[in-house]
């Protein structure tokens, strides 16, 4: 047993050492909420006029077609879906996911080689969209799936970035999601308050904990007192014996400026609480 534990520590150390040049950022959190919460969330004036740039879009890729509501921030996005008859992750009540993004093209390939060397089990995929009847690589991803949640690291592809107007020189440079959004807005100031995702809180069982631990190791998040974190983002977890039907309990976001404290009941299952420069979406499922 001691030898197996030592081998595990050596494997984790090798992964972390090799990843020092691979920076990833928490880019997106998605959650499948009840239909009432989905319909009401963007109708609230404080949410749509102060907190978020709000969009409802339908996306068609080589893997699926889906419709969601998107709360777009300066350097992150929250995605909300409502339950459907589809078996895909994200389509059943309580499904959730975390998406990190690399900062530079080619880093995902580098990370994949580290994963292969250390025999970490992940899924890989290339997601494409169609533009003028031509399939274009949107992003590549590596992910870990567990029951009804998905943990992914993505990397936008050159064809997609060029389609959006990025030059060869810009594509070759490291790029945060904030810089990506600034380019798309032609340098205009972000017009709302959602700066970034600060943390999420989830309820998981022991099997799901192992999945989360593997993912956080890949993204270089440290582990202490039921929290995986780096300087920008934290995942708080509680381990339970029986998996919860709605594991995601809270999403905490950072705001650009301090706001008046308030508590807004968006639906029977969703409350927004604001305190100074932090806002929290609290799920009561």
Would you mind describing this structure in some detail?
A hairpin with a 2-residue loop joins strand 7 and strand 8. With 285 residues, the protein is an alpha+beta fold. The chain has 8 helices and 14 strands.
Gross morphology: globular
Helical fraction equals 25-40%
- Calculate the terminal CA-CA distance, rounded to whole Å: 40 Å
What would you call the structural class?
A: alpha+beta
Unreliable stretches, pLDDT < 50, 5 or more residues?
A: 1-13
Order of helices and strands: HEHHEEEEHEEEHHHEHEEEEE
Q: Given the structure, what is the number of helices?
A: 8
* Number of strand elements: 14
- In order across it, which strands form the biggest sheet? 2-3-4-1-5-8-7-6
Mean pLDDT: 90
- DSSP strand content: 35-45%
CA-based gyration radius:
19 Å
Largest sheet: 8 strands, mixed
């Amino acid at each position: 047993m001691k030898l197996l534990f030592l081998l595990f520590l050596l494997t984790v150390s090798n992964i972390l050492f090799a990843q020092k040049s691979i920076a990833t950022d928490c880019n997106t959190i998605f959650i499948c909420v009840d239909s009432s919460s989905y319909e009401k969330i963007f109708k609230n004036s404080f949410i749509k006029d102060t907190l978020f740039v709000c969009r409802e879009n339908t996306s068609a890729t080589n893997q699926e077609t889906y419709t969601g509501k998107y709360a777009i921030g300066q350097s992150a996005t929250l995605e909300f879906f409502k339950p459907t008859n589809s078996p895909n992750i994200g389509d059943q009540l309580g499904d959730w996911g975390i998406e990190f993004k690399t900062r530079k093209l080619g880093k995902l390939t580098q990370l994949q080689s580290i994963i292969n060397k250390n025999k970490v089990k992940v899924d890989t995929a290339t997601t494409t969209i169609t533009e003028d009847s031509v399939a274009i690589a949107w992003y590549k991803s590596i992910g870990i799936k567990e029951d009804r949640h998905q943990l992914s690291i993505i990397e936008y592809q050159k064809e997609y970035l060029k389609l959006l107007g990025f030059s060869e020189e810009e594509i070759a440079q490291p790029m945060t999601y904030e810089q990506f959004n600034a380019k798309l807005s032609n340098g205009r100031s972000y017009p709302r308050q959602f700066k970034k995702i600060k943390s999420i809180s989830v309820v998981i069982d022991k099997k799901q904990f192992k999945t989360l631990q593997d993912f956080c190791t890949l993204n270089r998040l440290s582990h202490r007192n039921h929290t995986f974190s780096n300087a920008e983002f934290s995942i708080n977890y509680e381990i339970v014996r029986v998996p919860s039907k709605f594991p995601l309990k809270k999403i905490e976001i950072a705001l650009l400026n301090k706001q008046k404290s308030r508590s807004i009941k968006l639906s029977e299952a969703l409350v927004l609480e604001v305190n100074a420069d932090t806002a929290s979406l609290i799920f009561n499922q």
